[in-house]
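Re: weekly structure request thread

Next one in the queue (398 aa):
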Amino acid sequence: MSSNSPFRWIDSALDELQQKDLLREQRTCIPLPQGKCQLVDEHGAASDPFWNFATNDYLGLAGHPRVIAAAEAATRKYGAGARSSPLVTGRTPLYAQLEQQLAEFKQTEAALLFPTGFAANVGTIASLVGTGDVVLCDRLNHASLIDGCRLSKAVLRVYPHGDVDVVRRELAKVPEGRRKLIVTDSLFSMDGDAAPLSDLISAAEEFGAMLLVDEAHATGVFGKRGTGLLEDCPHSEHVIAVGTLSKALGAQGGFVAGSRKVVDWVFNNARPQIFSTALTPAACAAASAAIQYVEEFCEMREELLNWSRHLASSLRQQGWNVPPSVCGPIVPLIVGESSQAVDYAARLRDMGCLVPAIRPPSVPHNTARLRISLSHAHGPEGVDALIAALSKIRMGEE
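Done, posted below.
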């Protein structure tokens, strides 16, 4: 790099990340059946198979024959791409069908698709509030929710994780006539715990606020019908549900579900939806098939949650710091130092288990962790393999 390059600052900045064990490197991965994967090195050589505990494919549907067959049939019929935005001509029959299916699945009047869950959060929040309005954001919300709050230009109030008392106090301060929006994950992606949704709904109703709930990690996993954690909450016109098709549903894309008027407003104002090419026919068909599967086979969810409870309990018995609030397939092992988390992840890879080391800024400083994501595809064999590997690490430190 030349001495007058405008990018000469990058070398020292990358070195600083390296010294703090915060430097991320690109990884190429080949997904395999049964919750496994292979890593590909810079020469194109594939590793031996790993148990993949870095996936968000909670039900193993991304590789399910029924889901794949639906995607293949859609591609043959409609082609590989959507060709334009949904506002123009990209809203194929499969796209429209999926929006209707999602509305019925979430038991709302309407639903709207986005190219990703990130786009759904950013676009929906920015369309609901703006300059002079107030948005309340849980401190541990996903980055897409935080970015949506910031980009909205509303007054941002970050409240302590799950603290509804603070939410109520902040709502009481909002000037009359300004829009009020509470934003929360339903299942938090790095901590694996659930938001106090019923209490947040009550607060929203009391103070005339909107409540946006991101069901990304809960859709397909929780509820008798598999629709998410909102399923067990009282219905409220104050709630807007956002979610993704790319985790338990194994496809691609995001969505917002709510009243017909809310969806119409977001459709007309959410820039990531208006100015992005629509979801491919394959993604729409795959998601549609996955939703049908989720509704038909509730035992998959029950088994996954049972395995998650077994894993969390076993790791606590080994002495690992697993928060007691963990309630689903995301099981974090809080380590503290980034270097320690990186070391543990490397040792687990040596034992055939791929578990990501999560470090700041993805999590607060001094809370680096191993983030375990269980999939139904792992089965008891995969869960037991991980428990055994972590036990060896623990015993080696005693």
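The longest helix spans residues 298-318. The mean pLDDT is 96.
Next request, please.
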